[in-house]
UniProtKB/TrEMBL annotation:
Domain Flavodoxin-like fold, residue spans: 1-165
Single Gene Ontology MF annotation: electron transfer activity
Keyword Oxidoreductase included in the entry's annotation: yes
InterPro entries: Flavodoxin_fold (IPR003680), Flavoprotein-like_sf (IPR029039), KefG/KefF (IPR046980)
Pfam family of the protein (one): Flavodoxin_2
Coiled-coil intervals: none
Keywords: Oxidoreductase
The protein's name: Glutathione-regulated potassium-efflux system ancillary protein KefG
Length: 201
């Protein structure tokens, strides 16, 4: 599985969390890492053909970003608007992303319990991230369970260091793909059933 991580933080030099994740991904063999803020420059303009080639060459696409106003920072939206074009990502012959995977890795300032019905942010992360899920569906990608680090505002240095291993394990986990996970569970059930049949005869 070839993994492409697109980091969308407006200023990694001021980041506590996403910078650590960026450094972790940079040290990992098999991950291609792009800093969208550096690539897009002050006008957030991307080389569309180059970015589309990166997408074509990878199987799992990861959007890494801090949650800003319940969405991603503008650099990721600019990248999506420019790179996910008609005829490439959608439209009658726009099937170039079909079969790939889309994974989000994000950090929030608010704590986990605020992202529930009745919490002060009211909505779950699954609900708030729906535009990304629908982008995956429209483009024929498999949307994977996101990685969310909550409570950036109060996270200790130890919490952040620990998150490096958990975000990396999540990003590299093949079983995030529901089809792969389900196939393994089905196989286990089948083997259990065979064993039970043998025992009862
Ligand atoms: C402009 C802006 C908007 C933000 N919006 C949210 C938000 O909607 N929900 C939330 O939980 N945190 C929000 N935060 C907090 C960031 O998510 C938090 O600072 C970030 O995840 C920390 O990551 P970093 O250390 O990599 O910068 C916001 C921060 C900024 C600067």
């Amino acid at each position: 599985m070839k993994t492409l991580v697109l980091t969308a933080h407006p200023d990694l030099s001021k980041s506590r969390i996403n910078r650590k994740w960026f450094e972790t991904f940079a040290e990992t063999d098999g991950i291609t890492l792009l800093d969208l803020t550096r690539l897009g420059g002050p006008t957030l303009n991307f080389n569309v053909a180059e970015q589309q080639d990166f997408l074509l060459a990878h199987d799992r696409i990861v959007f890494q970003f801090p949650l800003y106003w319940y969405s991603a920072p503008p650099v990721l939206k600019a990248w999506m608007d420019q790179v996910l074009t008609y005829g490439f990502a959608y439209g009658p012959s726009g099937t170039k992303l079909a079969g790939k995977e889309l994974l989000l890795a994000t950090s929030t300032g608010g704590p986990e319990d605020s992202y529930h019905a009745g919490g002060y942010n009211n909505f779950s992360m699954d609900e708030l991230l729906k535009p990304f899920q629908q982008t995956a569906l429209l483009t024929g990608m498999t949307y994977l369970r996101p990685f969310v680090f909550h409570g950036a505002a109060v996270a200790s240095d130890e919490d952040i260091i620990a998150s490096k291993a958990t975000v990396l394990a999540h990003v590299l986990d093949p079983e995030l793909n529901p089809a792969i996970k389900k196939a393994r569970l089905d196989k286990m059930l089948e083997e259990d059933a065979k064993l039970a049949a043998r025992v009862s005869t």
